[in-house]
Here is the input.
Amino acid sequence: MKKKTFILFPLLAMFLSSCLFDTDDDGLSSWLSDQGMPSSYKVQMVTVNDLKPTSAVLYKDSLPRSAGVFGTFGASAGMVHDAVFDFAVDSAFLADLKAADSAKSYLSLYLFDAVYWSKVLPSTVLPIEDEVNVNISWTLSEKLTDAELNALETVVDSEWIDGLKSWKTKKTADTTVSVSITKKDSVLVLDLPSAFIDDVRKNSGNRRLQLRVSAPEAPHAYRFYGPSVGLLVSPILYMVEMEKDSYRGYRSLRAATLISNREECSDCLVLHGGVKDSLLVEFPSKPIMKALSDFYGDEFPYDAEDVRQSVVMAQVTFYRDDSKGSNELDMPIAVEAYTYTGDKDSLVCSRDNYSKYNDSLIAEKGHPNLVFHDGDSLTLQVTTGMRDFINRASDGRSFKMKMVLDRSLVLDKDEYFYGSNSYYVNSKGDSVRVFFPYPDYARYDFSSIKNTSTTLKLWLASKRGEEE
Here is the structure.
């Protein structure tokens, strides 16, 4: 088949270099050199319009996780977060409690100040003033020897957390608590129901107490420090108003967060932030291969690995509608793209770096890979995965990509984006926060992906010469 001839004019080369590689005119040459290709290789753009996915599959996250550093209880955006605590209570304490004239109990949770005291937190988020119906459930072990009680300190947290998948509490009671959070508040006190206190007082000897806090109708998810970060900010169970006004508290040995998805639409593609939900989207190879064949004038794919060109950049643009989503922190949220590389039967999924920016466009409209932001489109870079896909498409594979909700973006029009940190130091020596350090418990409905077309753009460094 006759090959089509292309001549890359200097003006076009300069335009592509500037557009794809910020304002560095040598960016294209540097990239080609890094890839082991001559800088004289041609770069052209191919656009595939009306590309529709063959499938879109949602993977929900429902696994228990450690709350050793920080935990959550409450509800947000269709998700319910229950907190579970593990305590070792000795016989002397239970004897004092049993002999007391009266008793009260509360759980003291130290608020995660990195969230609530952050200088970049929007003013619309705080204060929080809620009356919350809380369900408290618990289980007390049989009597333990001193050695067995001490051994609770050495329980492997991961084994305990794994056991929570099937753990059933034996007793339960409801209570109502007032939640007040401002930038001045540091402790959240949950008064525990009398039924819980009465049950604990009936017991003697060393006991293991496991306590679960659930607030499925709460208007917010409340974040607190876990037991792994030190005595001063760890969750502590207090029994108070005992005989002689004695106060005694028990620091939680460990804590976990249990997640439940309360979304009612089984067919909807709803991703949640703050958990590990993911959306796998699969595109057919045929329209992509046809666009390349039409562009180059020869067959795609080869019957072997096709290395006649290398993808300089690839981006896919989806239609988006923010109206069906919700977020607590009131900031734009970045969407991360993951793509697949390797042999068809042993694909490796990894994050596809968002590494090439158009500074002038970002300064005007903001980053294109955001939801809860201006506009009605979402553009994700899928360069690594598309490069591997085109080279190996002869094995009949389709193109797959995965999407997850990342952190909130504080500076949506700042050219600095990804790095190892959430901030950078500007020319004045000031630390500038780019990302909010912790994820928003948000939800986003991507169901429109199933019935709307996407656009794929490919920038290709071609290894074809000018010969016929």
